[in-house]
Design brief:
mainly alpha, globular
């Protein structure tokens, strides 16, 4: 899998594009996160683990509003597709706020089963 562009490299490329009066590359704009290198490395590591082993995986991303969860997920989604042709499902759990842990796991499992397609395009319990 390709390497992640660091913040310094992204800023340098952004400055170069702006000085030449050309639009910045899409990759640059998706890379600019503040202090998110560790999170991105973990998520890229998850992708490498999945592609290397052939097994699926789950990563729970939590945080307060404005933390950047959606931006990180969008970046990883694009990165996965562009570098490995990987598509993955996103399950938002807003409707599960306040659930007991045992209910949360069962609800999450049901949500995933209902949304995942197999290779023949079948969804859920078909």
């Amino acid at each position: 899998m390709g390497r992640l562009m660091g913040v310094e490299e992204a800023v340098e490329k952004l400055r170069a594009a702006l000085s030449m009066g050309v639009p910045p590359e899409r990759e640059i704009m998706r890379t600019i996160f503040v202090d998110r290198e560790e999170e991105l490395k973990k998520l890229v590591g998850d992708l490498e683990s999945v592609t290397g082993s052939g097994r699926g995986g789950v990563r729970l991303i939590t945080g307060d509003a404005g933390y950047g969860k959606s931006a990180i997920i969008e970046y990883i989604k694009d990165y996965a597709f562009e570098h490995q042709g990987i598509a993955f499902s996103l399950v938002e759990m807003r409707e599960l706020i306040g659930s007991r842990p045992s209910e949360l796991i069962l609800s999450l499992y049901r949500m995933i089963i209902d949304r995942v397609e197999d290779r023949e395009g079948r969804r859920g319990r078909e």
